[in-house]
Amino acid sequence: MSELPLEGIVVLDFATLLAGPVSTTILGDFGATIIRIELPKVGDSTRGMGIFPSGRGPSWLVEGRNKKAITLDLHTKEGQELAHKLAAKADAVVMNFRPGRAEGWHIGSEDLHRTNPELIIAQVSAYGQTGPYHKKGGFDRTASAFGGITYVTGFPDQPPVRSGYALVDYMTAYLGAFGLVMALYNRKVNGTGGEVIDISLVESGFRASESALVDYSLSGRIRERTGNRNPFVVPADDFETKDGRILVINAGVDTLWTKLAYAIGHPELLEDPRFNSRFARIGNQDQLYEIVADWVKDLTADEALEILDQAEVPADIIRNIEDLAHDPHLRARDAVLEVEDPEQGKVLVPGVFPKLTKHPGRIKFLGAKLGEHNQEIYSEFLGLSADEITELEKKGVI
Fold first, then answer.
1. Is 387 a catalytic residue?
2. If you write DSSP's letter for every residue of 264-312 in order, what string do you get?
């Protein structure tokens, strides 16, 4: 197999739950050597220690994949010294301690840059490294609330609800991976040396707020909850089918509305003054949605979807994880992969994204056991002797 794009790049992963580790998972999928640092005996919380005897729970299997797992206690002076030795040979570091915590352990950005001026350091936090709230902790749920995502999610007559997945964590991870690759490129091509990247959960979520801020600044309007509808994109809604499934249709531009009208057998609606322009459809959306809903409810989800696909109207069925696990499209694109694990056997995991045609990434192994690569990293990478490693183990440093 051809060399992967990030082959030869060494990244130290000090991060936990969840944005930081996912950013390094992405880098590891494309060939970077990820050295995952965890507290001895305790490990990362995503391992599910105590719940899963091997410390290799579902979250760890996927987000710990392709990573060399080592243990290191940063609370100790010896552990901090080892962290610097690792940093001296690394290209990048990812950490998500609360602002000030790394500095207290003498592994803050200034500390590490004294050891390695070329180091790219990504600092992931809830609110960022500066500002009035910078010392506050947070997770996806609280960041979604602060960033405005939760406020607009749900139905107008009900309280806001959180997303079913940790979307802000993953959006932050994508920004983190992008920032790291951008800084590595800048260092390589422009000779800019080391860099510190300040990535916050709340800003990642806030950046997804579309035009809400501009709209507010110009008109004073506050984006509110609208359930499954966008009041200015019509028709676009969810509809229950004959077999009790939910079909999603989005035909909110003129060309697609024309195709939808023909697909549901009502081309006369195109001349109906209630629906013959975008603004007319917005003003009369309740009546329009009744017409579409009546058409959908007489068909099974598969029947309706086939008609809409033939008509080139964007539509799909709301699917759960079981549907996705067996979906032929995801399987054909290796978006769902079956990986053989020595303990778990065949495990289904999300594939490698994005898809590079000439140099696609790969999954070499799923999340390793706690400290599985201690010998390899401390002996072969750092050059410590067997006696030195044994002594560190006795002291609980590794």
1. no
2. TT-GGGGT-TTTSSHHHHHHTHHHHHHHHHHHHTTS-HHHHHHHHHHTT
Q: What is the mean pLDDT of residues 88-99?
A: 96
**Of 44, 140, 169, 237, catalytic:** 169
Residue with tokens 């010896």: 78
Do residues 292 and 264 lie in contact, with contact meaning Cβ atoms separated by under 8 Å?
yes
Q: How many CA atoms lie within 13 A of 7 on its CB side?
A: 9
Is residue 140 a contact partner of residue 166, using CB atoms and an 8 Å limit? yes
What does the alpha-carbon distance between residue 132 and residue 330 come to, in Å, rounded to a whole number?
A: 44
Distance of CA 212 to the CA centre of its chain: 23
Please tell me whether residue 190 adopts helix, strand or coil conformation.
helix
Quick one: tokens of 253?
């531009």
Q: Is the pLDDT of residue 350 over 80?
A: yes
Span 140-180, pLDDT tens digits: 999 999 999 999 999 999 999 999 999 999 999 999 999 99
- Sequence-separated (6 or more) residues with CB below 8 Å from residue 85: 382
Residues 6+ apart with CB under 8 A from 367: 47, 56, 60, 61, 62, 63, 64, 65, 67, 69
* Buried-exposed string 138-151: b where 16+ CB fall within 10 A, e elsewhere: bebebbbbbbbbbb
Integer Cα distance of 3 and 48 in angstroms? 34
Q: What are φ and ψ of residue 294, in 5° steps? A: -60, -35
Q: With a threshold of 0.90, does the pTM exceed it?
A: yes
Amino acid at 369: K
Q: For the beta carbon of residue 178, count every other beta carbon within 10 angstroms.
A: 14
Q: Which tens digit of pLDDT belongs to each residue from 283-295?
A: 999 999 999 999 9
Q: In this predicted structure, what is the pLDDT of residue 130?
A: 95
Task: Identify which of 105, 103, 147 has the alpha carbon closest to the alpha carbon of residue 126.
Answer: 147
